[in-house]
Specification:
heterotrimer, A: 224 residues, mainly alpha, 78% helix, flat, C: 237 residues, alpha/beta, Rossmann fold, 2 domains, six-stranded mixed beta sheet, four-stranded antiparallel beta sheet, 34% helix
């Protein structure tokens, strides 16, 4: 992905921009108004895809870290770092929009319910991951140790989720217990939003990977 | 059997070092004491039933004191260049993990021997035998992750700050489960209501012991 | 005895070793000289298994570094300018600890013999914290040779030692069986450190650039080559 030419990347950006445009249109003009919550409910279409992409990005980082430990090729480390940075941003957005959602639904800005809390912990883990990278100077060791932390962090996610879910059960379990609480029309819009967010993630990822690759080239030149 | 002997040699070395310098345990004890005292003051002003917060206070004290011990355990080796000495030895790196793990477990357990009775006294709690396995399993989970994370921070800048930053998000499930279980047992809740948490704790311990054991060599080698 | 082929070590984008080939025969004593940053310590640390090579092969006494790492470790003794000793343990306790980790047979008698050879029998029950630099270095030799390895690696062993201590170090090294072992030592000081050496290799910027052996021994020439490299290294920066 980092070796893509300008054209490839621009194409991805274009597609991404178009789908986001359509998504916005759908969210504000096409999706039906929710009965109880009104227009505030539309935050939902920004919250779920952001959370989804955040988790996806961090999963990618986790897999890339595993591959780096196995193969020690620096491109896996670049992918791990890039995806972690982007994932962190999306998780942040997920938490903030989740907070708005919580305010609209339950009247509080924050509550210790499973998904929000797990996201907060995941946020902390990957913020720590990035801090760790900055705190280590020895190259080689830095990438390895960070990769191990990423692996530990992601293994902790399902455990965290279960723990917090048993602890609190307030979050509306939208897709669980058979049948969702959304109308089919809402579901369609939601899925489209998820797709468009994912494309956006890929576009940003390709850009970030390009930067990381360029940085490494500069470093190598400096030492030649 | 020689593997067990080598692990024991490592542990014995740490115990001997501590016996001579007495730095680590004393600071762990005092710190845990302070945490318990500070929390019991601050809650006493606002909370009606103190026994409600007791489990939380207990585990926070254990966690903070534990981190102190974890931080010192590898730093000691590094400062005296002994980390290289350990790496020279013809033992698998994972064995070094086990050695440090057992040492850390022992030191944190020794601290708990002081802190737990103190909490019981201050909060007027009644002892229940189930608390022993709960504290043990919680300590194992905390140490399993703590040992590898402290090895990670040895080579980082600002390592005293890095250790809590890196460790807390990972051990959160252990703390939640341990507090839930401790509280449940003290409140006299029936076992089937809280056994979920025990499963979680055991699951966490097993998973992270295995993952840390396997990943340790990547962290410690150059 | 020591066989290194195509050894490469990178730290991120920086190459510390760029393909080193080295052979040291049994019982030989070879010195690696070179300016700071040449890669001498890196090479030695890899041989001591303290650092992992990026690529290349390393064998000692026929044992491969990657295939049988622990067996490899048993065949190597490492002495650094850091003593690798626990300050809060006594001299004897330090040796006993390492002896157990190396699973040395007849540990107690071996420890006593070693302490005697390095001249520390009197201070064996004293904490290492109380030892002088020279004493620590001597105990370190005891630690390095406790498991009787066929190969001894010395990383800048004369650093921080004055003339007298350096001479004492030489004496002890010879006493503990220096001449029967294979020795590889590094030094950036061409004048000192070459008394016991039969062959020297000059390492600069990660590669061996010059070798000199016993039959054509000429320290002046070695110094010349060294100075050239040092100048070149300085110019490059």
């Amino acid at each position: 992905m980092e070796r893509w030419t300008r054209t490839h990347r621009n194409l991805l950006w274009a597609v991404s921009a178009v789908t986001i445009g359509i998504a916005l249109f759908l969210v504000f003009l096409v999706a039906p108004r929710e009965a109880t919550m009104g227009d505030m409910q539309r935050v939902f279409y920004f919250h779920v895809p952001a959370a989804w992409v955040g988790y996806l990005a961090l999963f990618v980082s986790f897999v890339a870290s595993l591959l780096y430990l196995r193969r020690r090729e620096s491109r896996w480390d670049r992918l791990a770092l890039s995806s972690a940075e982007i994932g962190l941003v999306f998780i942040t957005e997920g938490i903030i929009t989740g907070s708005f959602w919580a305010k609209a639904t339950w009247g509080v800005w924050w509550t210790w319910e499973p998904r929000l809390t797990t996201s907060a912990v995941l946020w902390a883990i990957y913020a720590s991951y990035l801090t760790l990278r900055r705190a280590m100077e020895e190259q080689g060791r830095r990438e390895r140790v960070a990769a191990v932390y990423s692996v530990l962090g992601f293994v902790a996610v399902p455990i965290n989720f279960m723990a917090i879910r048993w602890w609190r059960t307030v979050h509306p379990l939208v897709f669980e217990g058979g049948g969702s609480n959304l109308t089919p029309a809402m579901l369609r819009v939601l899925i489209f939003c998820i797709v468009s967010f994912t494309l956006f993630y890929l576009a940003v990822l390709s850009l970030r990977l390009g930067i990381a690759w360029a940085e490494e080239q500069v470093e190598q030149l400096r030492y030649e | 059997m020689s593997l067990a002997r080598q692990v024991w040699t490592l542990v014995l070395k740490d115990l001997s070092l501590e016996k001579r310098s007495r730095e680590m345990l004393s600071s762990m004890f005092i710190f845990a004491l302070l945490v318990v005292l500070v929390f019991s003051f601050s809650f006493d002003l606002r909370v009606e039933v103190m026994s409600g917060v007791a489990p939380g206070v207990l585990w926070v004290a254990i966690a903070f004191a534990g981190m102190l011990g974890l931080a010192r355990s590898f730093v000691l080796e590094r400062d005296q260049g002994c980390l290289d000495g350990l790496l020279l030895c013809p033992v698998d790196r994972s064995l070094l993990y086990l050695g440090k793990l057992v040492s850390n477990l022992l030191f944190i357990s020794l601290t708990e021997l002081v802190v737990v009775p103190l909490c019981f006294a201050l909060f007027n709690l009644t002892f229940h035998w189930l608390l022993l396995p709960i504290v043990l399993l919680g300590t194992i989970g905390f140490s399993a992750v703590g040992t590898i994370v402290s090895a990670m921070t040895v080579h980082a800048r600002a390592r005293e700050v890095m250790l809590p930053i890196l460790l807390f998000p990972l051990v959160l499930p252990v703390l939640i489960a341990a507090v839930k279980l401790t509280g449940g047992v003290l409140d006299g809740q029936p076992w089937r209501e809280i056994q979920n948490w025990m499963q979680l704790l055991v699951g966490f311990d097993v998973i992270f012991l295995v993952v840390s054991y396997l990943a340790f060599e990547y962290v410690i080698e150059e | 005895m020591i066989r290194v082929r195509g050894l490469v070590k990178r730290f991120g984008p920086r190459f510390a070793l760029r393909g080193v080939d080295l052979d040291v025969g049994e019982g030989e004593c070879v010195a690696l000289v070179g300016p700071n940053g040449a890669g001498k310590t890196t090479l030695l640390r890899i041989l001591a298994t303290l650092s992992q090579p990026t690529s290349g092969s390393v064998q000692v006494d026929g044992v491969d570094l990657f295939q049988e790492t622990n067996a490899f470790r048993r065949r190597v003794g490492f002495l650094s300018h850091q003593p690798l000793l626990y300050e809060d343990l006594t001299g004897e306790e330090n040796l006993r600890f390492y002896g157990r980790m190396y699973q040395v047979t007849d540990l107690e008698s071996r420890v006593t013999v070693m302490l005697d050879r390095v001249g520390l029998m009197q201070s064996r029950h004293d904490l290492v914290r109380t030892y002088s630099r020279g004493m620590k270095q001597r105990l370190s030799i005891g630690r390095a040779l406790l498991h009787d390895p066929p190969v001894l690696l010395l990383d800048e062993p004369y650093t921080g030692l004055d003339r007298q201590a350096a001479r004492m170090l030489d004496q002890i090294l010879q006493k503990v069986g220096f001449d029967s072992r294979t020795v590889l030592l590094t030094t950036h000081n061409v004048e000192r450190g070459l008394g016991l050496v039969q062959r020297a290799a000059l390492l600069a910027r990660g590669q061996i650039v010059f070798e000199m052996d016993g039959s054509h021994w000429d320290p002046g020439k070695l110094q010349e080559a060294y100075d050239r490299q040092a100048v070149a290294a300085g110019a490059a920066r």
